[in-house]
Amino acid sequence: MKPEETIDFHLRWLWLKIFRIYNMEASNFGGTISVGYTLLNIDKEGTPSTKLGPKMGIESRSLTRTLKTMEANGLITRTPDPGDKRVMTVRLTEAGKKYRDTAKNTVIDLNAYLFEHLDRRETESFFKVARKINRLLDDKDIFTKNRNPQIKTPTKP
Length: 157
Description:
Blueprint: H1 7-27, H2 33-40, E1 47-48, H3 49-56, H4 60-72, E2 76-80, E3 88-92, H5 94-117, H6 120-137, H7 142-145
Antiparallel strand pairs: 1-3, 2-3
Helix pairs in contact: 2-5
């Protein structure tokens, strides 16, 4: 099977292209896609840091580095939750709100461009297939259930 005949090849190819576009735009404002994505996921009233990672689908150690950078750059503040001092609530500063608006407009502009060049059937089909792939990949036993019987797996001697 050639790489371009696999679904993951096309997903990665598209994501890398989108990643580069967003990073180039973010660099015009001194930021990165990670910072923009994080800002977009912080609620207006603040978000507990323990909920931010799962909400974004990233691991806590990657998020911790990003949050430290964002705090040092004056985009967020982190304060202990009054009810549970172990939980830190992440809030946007005024600078963070401005950067968030820029990130939001960048996402809106890219999607408007894509919707402008794809017809309704194509976008509906894309979303339907993406949701189905997402559900299929939630299956934890994917490799034990779906082994190709024609492919021989190595056996231990």
